[in-house]
Specification:
By secondary structure, the chain is of the alpha/beta class. The protein has a domain at 20-232 and 295-306: NADP-dependent oxidoreductase domain (TIM Barrel), CATH 3.20.20.100. It has helices at 13-16, 47-59, 77-89, 118-132, 151-163, 177-189, 212-219, 262-277, 282-292, 306-313, 323-332, and strands at 20-22, 29-31, 33-36, 64-66, 98-103, 137-142, 167-173, 194-200, 222-226, 298-301. The protein is globular and about 50 Å long. The model has no long low-confidence stretch (mean pLDDT 96). It binds NADP nicotinamide-adenine-dinucleotide phosphate. NADP nicotinamide-adenine-dinucleotide phosphate is lined by residues 36-40, 66, 143, 173-174, 198, 226-232, 235, 237, 246-247, 283, 300-304, 308, 311-312.
């Protein structure tokens, strides 16, 4: 099908697709696999492949798209490009999509374009809505904890976004455990409970298991994991050097080639062997591993091609882990 023709989504997407989990104790269901637009959807990326990935995701029941004000090179370009895709191809499907955005990292110059102030968050949400051509987002996150802004101010801004109808739900990302606890309390007192915590989670990044996950569970808050493939390191791509066009090869990406050390490659290679014994790719095993942790409601993958996205969707077809496999994977994490 040409991408200028009217897009008709796969009618089987909700029966044969990725399936859904409730987000914590809320009534909102999230697809087990969500698509993140941090890399691969900016102005420097392949626009045709970006459109194909969004369609392929939706055709497979992936209803949740994760953005932030600063995603894409240059900043804001992922939201702008996603907005165009929505307008051109998804205008009839807005109510079938969960779209999130965030503010908290540096976005524009001066004291009001970074951090957790009400001034920054409110202005940033307005800009995000304009770029995506939306009336509201489904989830707005405080992208990181700001020690220089009182939590009451940051959480007050989130609560007001919900009361103004510009965000349906709110969440926090990367907050330390003690600050997350306070944020949950304030949001609840404001009458706009926290929906979700977004944190880094993969075979290589397990910190959240200690405090963040138990706290979320205690408060009925959902958890969504980002960088489940450790930005692509948990795949077979770096086993034999750094391929051209990979994230580690790009000058503008967040993965540096210096992170791909021989020691790391040796661990990836052993993980790759375990995946092969299970009859799957390492990327598939890495995603299945995140999702076997019952508190993980969804994982946000970033993909640079439809082929990768399909490989990741197929992770859901794979067998449960044996105790021995979990132990061996744990030793290599
Ligand atoms: N809250 C936060 O602070 C925060 C931080 C980071 C990310 N996030 C969210 O999480 C999303 C995902 O993060 P991420 O992009 O780091 O996730 P990731 O899934 O760990 O890494 C994505 C990269 O892995 C490679 N990849 C994906 N599927 C593959 C496959 N099947 N086989 C081989 N390689 C594969 C691709 O690399 P190549 O490009 O090299 O092909 C892709 O760009 C972001 O888009 C964003 O929405 C949030």
């Amino acid at each position: 099908m040409s991408h200028t023709e009217k897009y008709i989504p796969n009618p089987q997407r909700y029966t044969d697709g990725v399936g859904y989990n409730y987000c914590g104790k809320s009534g909102l269901q999230l697809p087990k696999i969500s698509l993140g637009l941090w890399h691969n959807f900016g102005d420097v990326d392949d626009a045709d492949e970006a459109l194909k990935m969004i369609k392929h995701a939706f055709d497979n029941g992936i209803t949740h798209f994760d953005l932030a004000n600063n995603y894409g090179t240059p900043f804001g370009s992922a939201e702008k490009n996603f907005g165009r895709i929505l307008k051109d191809h998804f205008s009839s499907y807005r109510d079938e999509m969960v779209i999130s955005t965030k503010a908290g990292h540096e976005m524009w110059a001066g004291p009001y374009g970074d951090g957790g102030s009400r001034k920054y968050l409110m202005a940033s949400l307005e800009q995000s809505l304009k770029r995506m051509k939306l009336d509201y987002v489904d989830i707005f996150y405080s992208h990181r904890y700001d020690p220089n802004t009182p939590l009451e101010e940051t959480m007050g801004a989130l609560s007001d976004m919900v009361k103004q109808g510009k965000a349906l739900y709110v969440g926090i990302s990367k907050y330390p455990e003690d600050k997350a606890r306070e944020a949950y309390r304030i949001l609840k007192e404001n009458g706009t409970p926290c929906l979700i915590y977004q944190g880094k989670y993969s075979i290589f990044s397990r910190d959240i298991e200690r405090e963040v996950l138990p706290l979320a569970s205690e408060h009925g808050i959902g958890f969504i994991g980002f960088s489940p493939l450790a930005q692509g390191m948990l795949s077979d791509k770096y086993l034999h050097g750094i391929p051209e066009n990979s994230r580690a090869a790009h000058s503008y990406g967040f993965l540096q080639s210096s992170q791909i050390t021989p020691e790391l490659v040796a661990r990836i290679s052993k993980l790759n062997d375990i995946a092969a014994q299970r009859g799957q790719t390492l990327a598939q095993m890495a995603l299945a591993w995140c999702l076997h942790q019952k508190q993980v409601n969804s994982v946000i993958v970033g993909t640079s091609s439809v082929k990768q996205l399909q490989d990741n969707i197929d992770a859901l077809k794979t067998p449960d882990f044996t105790d021995d496999e979990l132990w061996r994977i744990g030793e290599l994490g």
